[in-house]
Write a structure and sequence with these properties.
Two copies of one chain form a homodimer. Chain A is of the alpha/beta class. Chain A folds into two domains: 1-103 and 257-358, Isopropylmalate Dehydrogenase; 127-256, 3-Layer(aba) Sandwich (Isopropylmalate Dehydrogenase), CATH 3.40.718.10. Chain A contains twelve helices and twelve strands. The first copy, chain A, has helices at residues 14-32, 47-53, 61-64, 84-89, 92-98, 163-178, 197-210, 222-231, 243-256, 297-310, 316-334, 347-356; strands at residues 4-11, 37-41, 70-75, 103-109, 127-133, 143-146, 154-162, 184-189, 216-221, 238-241, 264-268, 276-280. In chain A, strands 2-1-3-12-11-4-5-10-8-9 form a ten-stranded mixed β-sheet, with helices on both faces. In chain A, β6 and β7 (154-162) form a beta hairpin. Chain A is globular. The interface between A and B is large, with 66 and 66 residues. β7 (154-162) of chain A pairs antiparallel with β7 (154-162) of chain B. The structure holds 3-isopropylmalic acid (2 copies). Chains A, B: Its cofactor is Mg(2+); Mn(2+). Chains A, B: Belongs to the isocitrate and isopropylmalate dehydrogenases family. Chains A, B: It catalyses: (R)-malate + NAD(+) = pyruvate + CO2 + NADH. Chains A, B: It comes from Comamonas flocculans.
Chain lengths: 358, 358
């Protein structure tokens, strides 16, 4: 396809600061490997838009994004102005659901040059992928309050898991595991406590495992799984999880590699019926916003995942991805560094240093 | 009260191996501080009982436990014979609910002599209490499957939170925070994703905070909270959480202190209408059972929490608790050590070493 159309939505807070550096790297890699890209910037899906219009996105947001191959997304949320659940459910979570981005792929990797908070771990000891269900499960606004305002007040919150949803998540995760040298999958569960949905997830995984006999797999209750992310990260290769458990594991995992300022994510509609979305795991970080010190690496790495996804099968995207990753590795090893990694470099300086090495 | 009646239920697996060492320490401390205890051993709430009777406990389990002041509990679960959800919902989770043990108190502390998996942390850097709601929330068997066996199959899982339940948990946690030098409380939430129950929990916490203006508090989404347990454990003092989030945090926290083999828990009915239950956080560990290498310290420490709770206000229980803790500290610092801490000592050797120092 020529060119690929990329929607650029920088969002709020440090999303706006890291986006230019992400674009710088993506442009450099695309140029080097001959991938034609056309960028389309949209000035919505942020809290200033909400302040002006009372909603996060225009009514015709879907039409405006028609024909886009990917969405390159910064971060959303400015709680001082708009409550988080309003800004998030009005933008990011809408994209994930309405564009059926049912895979949230989140690589976790320890890099040379990044001090590891886990004692004695070396690059290579932490290197896995969290595959998170991204459209259903625990994230719902279903349920309600009864006897409100009285002593008997009771709240019901519902989770919704579909066979369609679980099967496609597990299929993707098992196939991904199969494609990797270690061919191993771990399932996050809590079937000993959450008595309806989690035993059911276990059964879905057993059925999918039977169809992938070449993939070794195991199940971990989410409590002990978080402990093992700290004590035995070497065990993990591909980790499949529901929406909530994947959310937790994909913040915890990056924390064990030193900072969540590096962690990228790909919100994928693998069938490409809808645009996929690429964004850092970190949020808009109001606390450090405006100082130009945010680490842009998660944004840059998300861009690498985007190029890889776009041109799958062609090779150029994979090469571009690898070149960006190599540049990130070099910069992490040799510097410069932002404050979260103990340095004093600005967001722009990191972005330039990476782009120079692509 | 004289004597206190203690029900002893060793359960399955390593529960049976660590219980004698727990009793050894509790007896030694009770004797030294003049606390009269009477132990009552019950041979149920384990999977062998299930194999013989088709249920985990006799029909009259409540009557049998009438008059008990506390339940000293090993660990339950033997998945090779009985599915975990059957053994757990038929015993431990029944106690928590039917004896209204609504507080699950789980201290997390880094000890001298225990290698910390977090680089550069010293004893004192990790020292907080997880206060987990223990009777409701995400742990339910409510919900069901629709369109079963078809492609449209859908599963609903319900969580139930009551104002009664949230208020008493938060009240306990805020008062506990107030009683500690740092007077700080952190709430685990996920109000940006779980859209009904979690914003509601936030509001309950805000209301309770208003009644405790001398306690400083903050909220953390569960994803970033797990990251902060790894990156900034010094921030935490008292951490209040729902059933599921408390479950996760009270495995992750101990993992950051080197092993979950040390972590104790107190399942409290603070009003003493029903017996409270004291158990290690670790489970029955079938994988290491039978070798005599399990670390009994979590069981011993749980016994210390039991003595403290039993004699609250009298002083002797607190002294007994502190003496046990001091003995644990000494043994952790000087050895002997079990395999989980890199030693070769047996369960009994550790138990004897602790008892000798009380
Ligand atoms: C902001 C929030 C709704 C979001 C989530 O929980 O999915 C974020 O934490 C993430 O992981 O992308
Ligand atoms: C065994 C299991 C049901 C239990 C729980 O999840 O509560 C355990 O993990 C715990 O933390 O006590």
């Amino acid at each position: 396809k020529n060119p690929f159309h990329i929607a650029v939505l920088a969002g709020d807070g440090i999303g706006r600061e890291v986006m230019p550096e992400g674009l710088r790297a993506v442009r450099a890699a695309a140029e080097r490997f001959g991938i034609a890209l056309e960028f389309h910037t949209f000035d919505w899906a942020h809290c200033d838009y909400y302040a002006a219009h009372g909603q996060m996105m225009p009514d015709d947001w879907k039409q405006q994004l028609t024909g886009m191959d990917a969405i390159y997304f910064g971060a959303v949320g400015w709680p001082a102005t708009v409550a988080d659940h309003v800004s998030l459910w009005g933008s990011l979570l809408k994209f994930r659901r309405e564009f059926d981005q049912y895979i949230n792929l989140r690589p976790v990797r320890l890099f040379e040059g990044v001090p590891c908070p886990l004692a004695g771990k070396q690059p290579g000891d932490i290197d896995y992928l969290v595959v998170r269900e991204n459209t259903e499960g625990e994230y719902t606004a279903l349920g309600g309050v009864m006897f409100e305002g009285t002593e008997r007040e009771i709240v019901i919150q519902e989770s919704v898991h579909s066979r369609h949803g679980a099967e496609r998540l597990l299929k993707y995760a098992f196939e991904l595991a199969r494609s990797r040298p270690r061919k191993h999958l771990s399932l996050a569960t809590k079937s000993n406590g959450i008595a309806i949905s989690m035993p059911w997830w276990d059964r879905q995984a057993e059925a999918m495992a039977a169809r992938h006999p070449d993939v070794a797999w195991d199940k971990h209750h989410i409590d002990i799984l978080t402990a093992r992310f700290v004590l035995q990260p070497e065990r993990f290769d591909v980790v499949a999880a529901t929406n909530l458990f994947g959310d937790i594991l994909s913040d915890l995992g990056p924390a064990t590699t030193g900072t969540i300022g590096l962690a990228p994510s790909a919100n994928l509609n693998p069938e490409r019926r809808f645009p996929s979305l690429f964004e850092p795991v970190h949020g808009s970080a109001p606390d450090i916003c405006g100082q130009g010190i945010a680490n842009p690496i998660a944004m840059v790495w998300s861009g690498a995942l985007m190029l890889d996804f776009l041109t799958r099968g062609q090779g150029a995207g994979r090469a571009a991805h690898d070149a960006i990753l190599a540049a990130i590795e070099t910069v992490l090893r040799e510097g410069p560094r932002t404050a979260d990694l103990g340095g004093a470099a600005s967001t722009t300086e990191i972005g330039q240093a990476i782009a120079r090495r692509i």
